[in-house]
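Posting here for the record, re: NAP.
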Amino acid sequence: MRRNKPILFVGGGRITSALCAGLRLGKYSREIVVYDRNPDKLRALRTESRVTIAQDLQKALPGAEILILAVRPASVPGVLQEIAGTGTWPRLCVSLAAGIPLAALRRSLGNPAHWVRAMPSPVSRIGRGLTAISFDTAVSKAQRARVHKLFEAVGQVIEIPELSFDAFTATYSSSHGYHALATLASAAQRAGLDRKTALTAAAHALADGIHYWRESGLSVDELLQEAVTPGGIAAATMAAMDKAGYRQAVQRGIQAGITQARRNAPSHKTRKATTASS
Ligand SMILES: NC(=O)c1ccc[n+]([C@@H]2O[C@H](COP(=O)([O-])OP(=O)(O)OC[C@H]3O[C@@H](n4cnc5c(N)ncnc54)[C@H](OP(=O)(O)O)[C@@H]3O)[C@@H](O)[C@H]2O)c1
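Prediction output follows.
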């Protein structure tokens, strides 16, 4: 029987580390190959997630089933140029790079590459992440199924239009959870709770509410009605937060994230190449 071709990560940093660990946890069966310019990161990945280290990008590319581009947006043009220079790459390519549009990716390697944008999170490491994906029109039904299978191994997958990708990226960051947790716990500490109790109370306030929303099937408005007694403490706390600009602060944050994502979209001038493997 023909052995399944491996998936190849180009870039072995934070998100690759989380995805590889999650894929192993999710019993994803294909071999995982990683290429990075830092040998220490590669060795750590091999120890942690039993990945195969690619010493040579040119040799690794033709044998891969899916290329996963996992370098920072600023490094994308250079890496794509390097890939184009090798002459052969997988037909199915997935970019994790925030803000880099499909049109730019398509231009970089020409028609033989079928591109997908994906936005996972580090929570993939424990198999409970969410990944948004957008497919270029050239991606076939079978290729779509392969990408679904890959990211479903680390959590839920949703397809969104590419036009929504930057808004999704700004909204969907596990950092929002940590930021909210740190902010609420720090306010509780200032109000007199010790650090451990403040963190426990804040974590339960945030996580339990969201867990209940997921499990109950109730709307956010219904849950607010249940939790907020008119004239009570939660009502006073929320009203004061809103009056102090809570909603505007969050809106500005999301807008700043979208602006940053759009700054990532370079005018790619990578040489257009014409070869691709299966
Ligand atoms: N982190 C997240 O939570 C997350 C979530 C979703 C999507 N993403 C996207 O995923 C991408 C990677 O993010 P990250 O946080 O994992 O970044 P990261 O930790 O900096 O990892 C990128 C890795 O790629 C390496 N690299 C860069 N250029 C290279 C080249 N020419 N050849 C070989 N290796 C090269 C980097 O090496 P150096 O350290 O030497 O530069 C680094 O080890 C970004 O585009 C980001 O938008 C990240």
